[in-house]
Structures are given as C-alpha cells and as structure tokens.
Amino acid sequence: MRLRQTLAAGAVLTLGLGIAPALASELFDACAAKAASPWEQGYAETGLDGGVMDTAAAIEACSAALAEDPESAALKAWLGRAYDVSGDSAQAATYLDPAATSGSVLAQTSFGDMLIVGQGVAQDMTRGAELLKLAADAGFAPAQDSLGLSYDYGEGVGQDYLEASRWYRKAAEQGLPRAMANLGSMYAEGLGLDRDLVAAAAWYQRAADKGDSRAQYNLGGLFETGALGEPDYARAAELYQAAADQNYGLALNALGYFKQHGYGTAPDLEGAAALYQQAADQGVAKAQGNLALLYEDGTGVTQDFALARQFYRQAAQSGNTDAAVNLGLMYLNGAGGVRDLDKALSFTQQAADQGNPIGLNNLGHLYENGLAVTMDTTRALELYQQSAVLGYEPGSDNYKRLEAALQAPTETPSVKTYPKSKIDN
Fold it and tell me: What is the C-alpha separation between 146 and 98, in angstroms, rounded?
C-alpha cells in the first residue's frame, strides 16, 4: 500500500523553489533552522525531516518571526508545517492555505495533501491536486511524488498509472527516497510500466540505502520469496530488521514471523511475540492474527484464549480472513470453554464471503452438519467445490466425499426407517 506523505525524508538535491525575503532577519533564520524542509531551495544542508523536528521549538520560533513579518509566505509555510508535524492539522491549515496562495511550493504541497485526504480541512481533491501540480511543475520533489500518488489512486485527477510513474520518476531522479520506493512498486506490480522485478529491486535498493523503511520492507519481500532467484532469508531478515528498527509495522510483523520460524535468524518465540505486539499496536491486521495464534497455542506467551479471541477479532474487523476463520473455529470448538455456534457461523461466513478457501470449506461443514444453520447438503457441496477450485485440498476431499455420498443408492423408507432423533444424530 502506498501512503501519502507530506514530509520529505532526507534529501540531497533542492530543485524546489522557496520564498524568502530579500533581507532575512535573525528571527527568520531561527524559524528556518527549526522548520524548513531540506527540499526547499537553499536548505539542503540545514532543512529538517519532520521526524526529527522539535515542533514546540519550531512553533515558538516561527510564531515570533511571523509576528515580525506577518506577510511572509515562507514563515507561514514553515509555521504551518510545524503545526502539521505536531498533529494540529486544523491550525496548520490556517497558515498553509494563504502561503500556498502566495506561491510557496512547500505550502502548496503540504496543504494540497491535506485537502486530498481531508486532514484538518474539508476534503477537496480537485483543488489539492491543482496545488500539487503547481509545486510539481516548479520542480519540488515532494510535490512530484504526491502528484504521482494522485494519479496512482485517481485522487483529484483521472487515474493514470503511466502519468503516476512519470511523476514518481521525476522525484526519484532528484533523490527523494519515497518516490524511489513508489517507482519500484510500479515496476514490481506492472502498473503503467512493464513488470520488471530487477528494475523494482534497483529502485527499492536506492531508497533502502537512504533509509526508506517501506523500500527496505519491499526489497526484503523480494529476497524472501526468491523473486530475484533463490530465496535469501538472511538478506531478507537484515532488510526487515532495518525497517523494523524504524518501527515500520509491516516489517515488524515480517521480522516476527522470521523469528517465530527461524528463517534467516535464530528462532526466538518471545521475540516474535514482542514484534507482533508492536505491529498489532499499529493496527497491522496480519500481526494481530499472528499474535492471536500465539496466544491460542501458548507459543512464546502464556496461553490466553480470551486474548486470542480479542486479537483475532481485531484482525478480522480489519479484513484478515484467516483471522476470521480461526476465530470461527475457536467458537465452534469451544476453545477456552466458550462455544458459540452463532458466532462460529458469523465469522466463518465473513471469511467465506471474501473468498477465503478455508472459510468456504468450514462453512460447508456447518451446512453439511446443520450447525447454526438448517442442514443443506446441496449448499455444503457448493461450498466445498468453491474451496476446491481455490486449491484447498481438504475442500476438494470433502467435495469428493460428499458428492459420492449423495450419489450412493439409498434404501427406501418402506424397507427400513429410523426415528427422527437418530437421523439428526
């Protein structure tokens, strides 16, 4: 998944245009030192990435500078950026909006992104994309990347993967790591460009070398799956670790899985549980499901069925169909002393509706045996077949078994009958 990012990572080139007064005062310089972007012209060496900005100090310095020069677009942009990084988007918008109108590419980019996602302001994708285009045309790399995202997802402009890749490339060639990662993903997925995993890996590597956590994770995935040749779990583990060290949720989950199973690193069940927990706290559904499984089995943690159900539920609510399957099974089997056939049906149905082959098979079992539903062997057979088509072997086995049973000759009721209660059993 590509995430819209309004704050640039570390930079080496500054082709974006900034706005500064003819004679900068000491207060102006103090604000710039605490809030300028490294992608603004003249601030490649002194500009700060948002992740290391002292927002309280930046707001104080820029507020003082703006009081001295209330018309400065640069100061408004920097103060707005500081508020944005601090999490106060509504306050940020009061400064970024007029600065963007005055021509600040930094403000046009930050406020354009805010308009597109509706962050602190009423959503207006069209105007947001227009502001990004102004800054992108001026050569501001973060705007070029964000405009690429707009074309990528059709936000404020018509979806156009080729145009997205063109803007990503412009920003990537200026050295913007996030754009390098996005361009790598376009090659990896064959969107707007011919699918080329070698090119994807090359762009991921360039971004990874600059510390981009998503590129590190994506490159790790190529090494894990052997997409570039033989799987290299050790190299994948190194990349996942680098991204996990930056608290990137997907990498925390991937590294946890490696530690759980001893892929490319020494097995460490407690370490795996800790990594899953960190990722789960960020809302990573797959990590929530993995952590639930550990609690269900008592692996690396003290067995706790209540926590297992809690994490499975969180993951299922986020769309993790495997978690929905497992939660359905817990309720079906009464794990931890809690058996609830209605909930078993609900979560199993949820997984089946989303095409999970195990969910389809398990739902077939419920229909075949009349568990929380009226017994319906025809429906069960259909579900087993759907599971089999998706390659799930137990689904195929159940389909063949039930099909044979339904086609087998049956004795006529006049020869032998059974009480209804016995049929039900």
Answer: 20
